[in-house]
Amino acid sequence: MIAKLSGRLDDLGEDWAIIDVQGVGYLVHCSAKTLSALGERGEACTVHTDLQVSENNMRLLGFAESAERDWFRLLTQVQGVGSKVALAILSALSTGELRDACAGGDAAMVARAQGVGPKLAGRIVNELKDKAGALPGGGGVSGIAPAPAGGVSADAVSALENLGFKPAIAARAVSAAQAELGEDANEGDLIRVALKRAAG
């Protein structure tokens, strides 16, 4: 899977950019915040990416930082939230605002995003409130110890949750494991050490 693109900003529109990587132009769909962070046409840029494949379409989504990509993946797990709605939310709110809104149960803040009604905003906040502390971006309103930024730590937290650990315990265990192993730890080692911490 394409995880990151580094190249030159060739062109951009309302919700997309074309990144030229050694002569190949990648069409990347982005939030407004990411588009504003890319710079001017012709300048060097880097985007973290997520590839979505459906029966008859492939879409590459681009994010200025990995934290935004982690939130995008989390948002699109909520029923009724597709890539377009997720990008609209990330255009309206910073990752910090989104995390604090979910952790604090503030559906009205999420409903500020275009195309997000009160009912959907309530569902997003309800489903993500326990996971908010596991992702970077906010001030820790929920009191859950945040895992360090990056997809590896978020994936490790998710793996522990799938094994039955509560989100808060999983987040704390992964944070401790990352502190022990360092920022360059791979996912397997992170999960192994975090499991010992969580089980202890």
Describe what is shown at a glance.
With 200 residues, the chain is of the alpha+beta class. Helix content is 46%, strand content 19%. Strand 4 (44-53) and strand 5 (58-63) form a beta hairpin.
Overall description:
- This protein is of the alpha+beta class.
- It folds into three domains: 4-64, OB fold (Dihydrolipoamide Acetyltransferase, E2P); 66-142, Orthogonal Bundle (DNA polymerase, domain 1); 145-200, Helicase, Ruva Protein, domain 3 (Orthogonal Bundle).
- It contains nine helices and five strands.
- A five-stranded mixed barrel has the order 1-2-3-5-4.
Give the helix proportion (percent range).
40-55%
As for the CATH topology of the largest domain, it is DNA polymerase, domain 1
How is the main sheet built? 5 strands, mixed, barrel
What is the N-to-C order of secondary-structure elements (H for helix, E for strand)? EEEHEEHHHHHHHH
* CATH homolog superfamily of the largest domain: 5' to 3' exonuclease, C-terminal subdomain
Number of domains: 3
| Helix segment tally | 9
Number of strands: 5
Placed side by side, the strands forming the largest sheet appear as: 1-2-3-5-4
Radius of gyration: 17 Å
Q: Pairing-aware structural class of the strands and helices? A: alpha+beta
Question: From the 3D coordinates, which CATH architecture of the largest domain would you assign?
Answer: Orthogonal Bundle
Ends distance: 35 Å
Strand content: 15-25%
CATH class of the largest domain: Mainly Alpha
Query: Would you identify the regions where 5 or more consecutive residues have pLDDT less than 50?
Result: 138-150
Overall mean pLDDT: 84
Tell the overall outline.
globular
